[in-house]
Structure formats: structure tokens, C-alpha cells
Write the C-alpha cells for this entry.
Amino acid sequence: MMDILTNPDEMLEKMLNSLGADSVAEGGAALETGRRIITFNPDAIAQGRASLNDLAPGSIASSSDFDGDDITAEGLSGASGLVFEELGVAILDEASGMAASSFGDGSSATAAFSANEPEIFMFPAGVDPAEYLRGFAAAAARIRDDLAAGGGGGGGEGEGADDPASAVLGNTWGIVAVRANTSRFTGRGIKIAILDTGFDFRHPDFAGRAIVHRSFISGETTQDVNGHGTHCTGTAAGPRAPAGNIPRYGVAFEANIFIGKVLSNTGGGTSASVLAGMNWAIANRCEVISMSLGGGGGPYAYYTQAGQQALNAGCLIIAAAGNSSNRPGTISPCGAPANSPTIMACAALDPNLGVAYYSNGGPIQIAAPGSSVFSSVPMPTRYGPKTGTSMATPHAAGCAALLAQATGLRGNALRAALRARARPLPLPVTAVGSGLVQAVQ
Amino acid sequence: MADPVEYIVTLAPGAPAAAVADALRAKGFTATSVLAELAMLVGTADPDTVEACKSIDGVTAVEPSQPIQLPPGDPQ
């Protein structure tokens, strides 16, 4: 007979096994532990406990068996159920043989029970269960590997890339939501430009990647000091299997990366610096151009024309809608350049696939994961979370790169196909456009 | 006379950039770069001359360069 407190390894395995694709796609359906919670009729608690003891003599513990309120694993050893008398409930182990089907049959033994429900795992508020469990699994695996390496902590590097489990377990919620983790496509042969604060060329996750770069900020190299550009680059084109059991956070992991520094290390620039970067990306025929930046006003003729010239040249520009809103009360209009009709405006979603409270509205074309996005940041920190439509945009750009590789479509045709393949959401088009961007499978 | 301001001049696609630049210069516009892929010129001018620049054949818009940044308030 199993202990009611399951071995932690078995518990984790059970949790991960219950992570079906459906539960993830639905934004985190309740995950069951396998145990049942029986609620007693309030006036029949003693009768209920007696009924349980009749069904499994000697194996039902009670909270009153323990001193004070502390219930210990040692004290529960051998028990297949536990009655919380103050609460009027009992938790029954699945292996007791009486959990799922022994009640609700109208027998006299069940007259004392008012409900028989599955126990579910609980998570911190606002956290997607799938992401939480995967992160937990990755952390547990890393600790395990470190211990196996003698506790020195130096044995984990590089092992994750060869560990098949890391490709299954290690995906950020954004990668799962856009289904990049199951796509056959990689972005190979596609040039993706990230026009931002630059990139940290020392980051080990990009060692060996050919990166073309140029700064359009006077007096500053392309090296990213701010961190924003490195984060966006990671989401768009980070590696398939980062070292050390870090979850996969990049969509188009074989795309050719073009870094245009159009914002200074303090995050500022001008239309002129941004346009110079756009001109450079188009001249290089980058099929996808990701722009996690914005300003007030507009739409401006120059951004609208730049977007059209890009489409004419076979390049698709995706830009952040902006974060000025405070939904549901305040919905700010999309900023420039995203408000130009020739540029694809990208909204942000939270892990429940709701529109993020800060995400601007208006002429939105597509939506992507934007809240609590894990990606690369400059060394020595290496990784970290960020939130914003800035984080949504490179998810969409990465998916566009996969679609460009898979279909050969470019420019306006690529834009139309990306929208057509989006997963519809039960939200206004002014909030999420065609819906959640999807990686071609 | 006001201080010069940076402007973006948007050209009609196919317009002769060199000829338009010459005409702009005659109006007091100083071109600093040509964005050939975008069919645009970047430069500086006295705000008082902008209306005259807009009337040049091949020019579709003359707009001041705007500050731009990481989307304001990127929540962390």
C-alpha cells in the first residue's frame, strides 16, 4: 500500500505525465494528483469516518491522531487516507482501491459523504501550471546533475544539449504557446533582423552563430549594455537546446541573425536612427524585421512608406504595439511605427492567453506571448524574465521566419499567411488581431 | 531664425532622389543621408522652410524626426 505522501520523484513524474498538450493549449487545465477528496455531510462526520474504516480497516489516519496541528510524513507511513476532522474532509490515496469508484453508488456506506472530487495541484497565482512544472523539472534535473557531478556544479554545462528530456521538458511558456517546440522548421536560410539596443556578443548560447551587425547610434558599438536587445534576440532566434537544462526560449534557432542597433544603451533613439536601421535590414534582404520599440503620434508617412518598401522587397516588419494601456479601464492606441498599416502590429498575451493589461489596442494584426518571458540577457546574468509587447514581437518574428522557410512566402504574402494561421482567441480584434501567432508545423 | 530641426523627407517611389535633393538644397534643406531602400532623405532645415520643401515635385511628406524608445513602461 502506498504512503499518502508520495515520494517526491514519483510526484514529479506524475505531474509531468499529466501535462498533456491539451492542458497546455488551453492555458493550464487543472492537473489532478490522482488522489480524491471526500467531503463529509456536516452532521455525519463520525459516521463518515466509520464508513472509511469499514472500507479499509486500520489504514485511515486522522488529524486528531497527531499532537497539535503538525502532521508528519513519518506519522502517516502506511496510511492510505487521512481524515481532517476539523474540516470535515478526507483525502484518499488512489492505491487504497476505494477512491474513484467506491462512492456515489447510493450505498448506505456513502450516505455520510456529500462530495467525491479529485485533488488538484495548486500553483502560485498568475502562474501557468505547465510553465511552472517545466521550470521546476528543469531546476530539479539541474540539481540532480550537479549532485551526480560531485557537487562541484561544473558538470552540467553541455549535458543538456544531449539530453532528449531537455527538448521535451525545457520550453518556456511562450515557446509552447506558439508551438515552436513541435515545429519541424528552424528558420534555416532566413535572415531575421532585430532592430533594438544591440546584442551581447559574449553570450555563450550564441557561440558559433554568424551574426551580422551594425550600430546606427553615434559613439556606441553594437554591444548591448541595456539588455533589451539581447532578450528580444534570444526570443526570436535563441538556441534549440541551451546548455545546463535551461528551457528553450528561442523560436527560429537556425535563422541568420542581423543586429541593428537603433536605440542607445539607455534605450533612446530617433526616427532617423530607426529608419537607418530599417534601410540597412531591407538592403540586406532580411525576410523578417523585428522592432520592439515605439514612440508617440503617427501614423507617420515615413514609417508607412518604409513598411511598404519593405514588403515590396520581400521583407516583413513586425513592431510592438506598445505598453501604455491599463486594461480593462484604459486602452491606449497603438504607437508608431506599429500604427502604420504596412507594419504588422503585435499585441502581448499573458500566460492564460488573455490580452496583457498593458497591451495597446487599435490596428492590431497579431498577438504573441509577452508577459513573464524568459530569455537571454547580457553576461554575467545570462538569463532573465521581461514583460511587454517588446517580448511578444520577437515571438511573432520567429514564427514568421519559420513560415518563410517552410513556404517560401515573402512580404505581404507572408504577412497574410501568418495571420491566417494564427490561433483565434475569444477577444476583440482590436486587442489581439487575428489571434495567437503559431509556428508552422 | 529658429534652430535647424532634423526632418525625414519621404519621396514618391521612383522619384529622382538626386534631383529632389538639389531642389531641397535650394530651399535651405541640408541632406545628411539618403535611405535608398526607403526612398527617403534625412536632413536638417529651418522649420520656416518646411512648407516650401513640401511643394517640391517628388516629395510626398516632410516630417520631423521623432524621439523613439523602448515601448514606454515596459513592465518588468
